[in-house]
Design brief:
The complex is a heterodimer. By secondary structure, chain A is α/β, with parallel strands linked by helices. Chain A is about 30% helix and about 25% strand. Chain A is built from 17 helices and 24 strands. Chain A has a six-stranded mixed beta sheet with strand order 6-9-10-3-11-12, with helices on both faces. A six-stranded mixed beta sheet of chain A has the order 18-21-22-15-23-24, with helices on both faces. Chain A has a four-stranded antiparallel beta sheet with strand order 2-1-4-5, with helices on one face. The longest helix of chain B is centred in the last third of the chain and has 27 residues. In chain B, β1 and β2 form a beta hairpin. The relative contact order of chain B is 0.19. By secondary structure, chain B is an all-alpha fold. In chain B, strands 1-2 form a two-stranded antiparallel sheet. In chain B, α2 packs across α11 and α3 runs antiparallel to α4. Helix content of chain B is about 70%, strand content about 0%. The chains are: A alpha/beta, B mainly alpha. Chains A and B meet through α10, α11 and β20 of A and α8 and α9 of B.
Chain lengths: ~525, ~325
């Protein structure tokens, strides 16, 4: 086998994070090469580097013996490197044919030759067994699986010498997956090199000739198909020291349930999720990215419409149609006073659901507004007398929140975007603690945060649980799930495939469950 | 961020207000210089003249107050012209003690329709309110048969708009009352916080439990009420309502809000700035006509001043 693409000493940093650390990597012609690794192992950065989307800080790339310097994705395409990303790159309001030829439409007298463009789309679609897709249809009107096939047809239209598929099969139906396998076999036979990223182990076992494992931005090992057992591969994917420190987990007695979820379904992202969280319990949501964890949190918080299933808080069935509903869901007396009778009674909204959202910059905070305004935005009702803000109580609440979470601020009237990422996240959390929630949902709250603040957040969560809150916590970091959660539910394809607890809660077990390796497991628990 | 030394020490929200205020002084100085050299007197500095300008400004000011609320939540209300006219026409047609409540009711109805369209049906406000404006216009033309309505303003409308106490036109008090309401609303109420939060990042406000749709609906209702109130005052001032009486208000109102430092994309701006913006626009118009500038020149200067003010603010916003 001749080496086709060779990377030598490639490094890439994002701020303080080494996404790629001195990576040597090679793949061959006429071969499907799978790249494996946990979330954040550096797979995506590797692909983006090869596809010209990001420029490496150091190292060299050669393709077919020639040195490569890719400034843009277009330059990569010109070199024969074509990438199919997991986020679709199609323009929904253009036709299938327009999309397939978007970069290089066939021309006639300088104008786009619509007939040739259509023929070309038909040929490419037929090549992957999708004759049934009408090239004149708008992409928006196609189902997701077919859109992904159009994406693949578009990539093939660029005559790749190296084709990269990044989770390109995650949206496909079974029949389309078979078509993609057949297409890859044909490409391989014609000498094309294929880089294949997937979290689905059985796909990799079926397709890959060689496998490379990445971890923490480093290339760990490359081996041929069948040289390693799935267990060994998982071991290679983990194998790192646990760095963060977690507060001790108290022994758990059987606690009364605080949050009960039964048969929660939403579109094709959640399929009958059932889960119970007791008072004072921290439950983690694990699994690979995009298996429905975010949707589960959003459904519980009333953001998603037409969610079916049952949600109970403190034993009472709740209908949650909006975040405002979710925040008051725990209130014991129906719609008691609506917060209108202020004064000393202190009508706290208390006892509802809180959600620390995924992206603090767009969902958690109003960045140009002040720290104080951000802190009180979820508690406006509790801090008002009738329609008027009680500025005295507001000041006290803001000062309390800042000191409780030790948020490092200059003045509380400074814009929140002047704070560091960790302190911004503390503002988001403090905002919610002010509402005294009974159920706290967190969507990857420690992403992009320094280790010190992470530890503070772990301690805080344990403290809140000890005070009786039920906490549901999605994280992409397995250490974090193991270290801070009493129990971890693993989602796969919108279902909880396993719940791990006590000494069964190991990284090995999480990864095995995440990849749904034991396929004999029932679809729901 | 570089800023003029004179204006340092002001918060970013107050700086556009100060700049617009300085510009008002420049306009007055230029106008006075012109009249002094040409006629040898300074009518622009007479209290009578200034009060008259404020009276004219009151109509625009009340429209701009409502418009500011809508702009703060990143929306726009283009149905203002015919809300002004419809409020006035309904009030004069109903007459008697129910004239003013009827006019207000028209404003509430238009606001509710706009609010439902924008907040609940999620139709872009620029299109939806434009459509509502056209429908209102059609309704009013059908109502009057295409002629100027024969009815006249009631005594109460005339009292509120044109009569004076101690020489001060009542319209100015009305503007003051609306202004106090706006300042309290924006600075002291939970609703005001919600307005700024939505304008800054609607998703974050929604995920913080702010009832974004209700807040949006109410903003359009307040804007509609302001427009119909301005229409009734205008009818009181002119003694009657007429077709197209609101046409001259929508763009100057938007301009006044933006000149006063409110971010056209929402989320930032102080009410005082809007007041100063209104005064600037009214004075500029008046001084240009006193200077006997031909219409073409007036339009050019008017447009250039707005662009100039926006350039000044835009540079600060980009910092």
């Amino acid at each position: 086998m001749e080496q086709f693409l060779v990377l030598a000493g490639v490094s890439k940093r994002y701020g303080g994070v080494r996404a790629l650390d001195n990576v040597d990597f090679a793949c061959n012609r006429a071969e499907v090469h799978a790249v494996l690794g946990e979330n954040g192992a550096g797979k995506s950065t590797l692909i983006k580097t090869i596809a010209g989307v990001v420029q490496p800080d150091a190292g060299t790339m050669t393709l077919d013996g020639k040195k490569l310097s890719l400034r843009t994705p277009q330059a990569a395409n010109d070199a024969g490197i074509v990438c199919i990303f997991q986020e679709l790159s199609l323009l929904p309001d253009l036709s299938v044919a327009d999309n397939i030829s978007i970069a290089r439409p066939p021309r006639r007298f300088g104008l786009i030759d619509l007939r040739a463009q259509r023929r070309r789309a038909e040929e490419l679609l037929a090549g992957i067994g999708c004759e049934d897709v009408n090239p004149m249809m708008r992409v928006r009107d196609l189902p997701l699986s077919r859109r992904q096939m159009v994406e693949i047809a578009k990539a093939l239209g660029k005559d790749p010498r190296l084709l990269i598929l990044d989770e390109a099969t995650s949206a496909l139906t079974g029949a389309d997956v078979e078509r993609v396998y057949a297409m890859l076999a044909r490409l391989k036979a014609s000498g094309v090199a294929v880089l294949y990223i997937s979290h689905r182990m059985h796909e990799i076992e079926a397709l890959a000739d060689r496998l490379s494992v990445f971890r923490n931005g480093r290339h760990i090992e490359t081996f041929g198909r069948g040289e390693r057992s799935p267990d060994q591969i998982v071991q290679l994917m983990i194998g790192r020291e646990i760095s963060a420190q977690f507060p001790p987990k108290p022994p758990r007695a059987e606690a009364p349930p605080m949050l009960e979820i039964k048969g929660l379904s939403w579109e094709d992202r959640l399929h009958g999720v059932s889960l119970t969280i007791g008072r004072g319990e921290i439950v983690g949501l694990g699994g690979l990215d995009g298996q429905g964890q975010k949707e589960l949190l959003l459904a519980l918080f009333g953001v998603l419409k037409q969610v079916s299933g049952e949600i109970r808080i403190g034993g009472r069935r709740k209908t949650i149609g909006s975040p405002a509903d979710a925040m008051t869901a725990g209130r014991q007396t129906g719609g008691a006073s609506g917060g209108a009778n202020g004064g000393q009674a202190g009508v706290r909204s208390g006892g509802g659901i809180a959600l620390v959202p995924e992206d603090r910059k767009t969902e958690g905070l109003m960045l140009p507004m002040s720290i104080a305004e951000n802190l009180v935005i979820a508690s406006l009702g509790a801090l008002s007398n009738g329609p008027f803000m009680n500025t005295g109580r507001e000041r006290v609440a803001v000062a309390d929140a800042i000191s409780r979470l030790q948020i490092k601020v200059g003045r509380d009237s400074d814009a929140v975007h002047t704070l560091s990422g960790g302190n911004q996240q503390k503002v988001v959390i403090a905002k919610w603690l002010m509402t005294e929630p009974a159920v706290i949902l967190l969507n990857d709250p420690t992403r992009g945060i320094d280790v010190g603040t992470k530890q503070e957040i772990y301690r805080l969560l344990r403290e809140l649980a000890d005070q009786g809150a039920a906490i549901l916590f999605y994280s992409t970091d397995y250490d974090e799930l193991i270290g801070s959660c009493d129990r971890v539910a693993i989602l796969y394809d919108g279902r909880i495939v396993r719940e791990l607890e006590g000494c069964a809660l190991t990284e090995q077990a999480i990864i095995a469950a995440s990849l749904n390796l034991t396929r004999t497991e029932p679809a729901h628990v | 961020m570089s800023r003029p030394a004179l204006l340092s020490g002001l918060s970013p929200d107050d700086r556009p207000t100060a700049i617009a205020g300085l510009f008002i002084l420049v306009i007055l100085a230029a106008g006075t210089g012109y009249t002094l050299s040409k006629f040898g007197n300074a009518p622009l500095l007479q209290p009578g003249y200034l009060l008259q300008q404020l009276q004219i400004g009151a109509f625009l000011g009340i429209v701009a107050a409502g418009m500011m609320l809508v702009i703060l939540i990143s929306q726009i209300d283009l149905s203002v012209p015919w809300t002004v006219a419809a409020g006035a026409m309904t009030a004069t047609a109903v007459g008697g003690p129910w004239a003013i409540p009827a006019g207000i009711a028209v404003g509430v109805c238009v606001g509710v329709v706009n609010g439902i369209g924008v907040a609940y049906l999620r139709i872009p406000s620029m299109i939806f309110t434009l459509g509502v404006n056209a429908v209102m216009r059609g309704l009013m033309v059908a109502h009057t048969g295409g002629f100027a309505p024969q009815t006249t303003a009631t005594d109460a409308m005339r009292f509120l708009a044109a009569d004076r106490t101690l020489g001060v036109p009542h319209a100015i008090f009305m503007w003051l009352a609306v202004s106090v309401f706006m300042v309290v609303l924006l600075r002291r109420t939970a609703y005001g916080r919600a307005i700024y939060a939505i304008g800054n990042k609607e998703a974050a406000a929604y995920l913080s439990g702010v009832p974004t749709r209700r807040v949006t609906l109410l903003a359009f209702v307040i804007c509609g009420v302001c427009a119909s109130l301005a229409g009734m005052l205008l009818a009181g001032y002119a003694t009657k309502a007429y077709q197209g009486m609101g046409d001259a208000y929508v763009l100057p109102a938007i301009a006044a809000v933006v000149i006063g430092g409110t971010n056209i994309l929402g989320g930032r701006g102080s009410y005082l700035g809007t007041v100063v913006g209104v005064i600037l626009i009214v004075l500029l118009n008046s001084v240009l006509s006193i200077m006997e500038m031909p219409e073409a020149g007036r339009q050019i200067i008017y447009g250039l001043v707005i662009i100039l003010m926006l350039l000044v603010h835009g540079r600060e916003g980009g910092a």
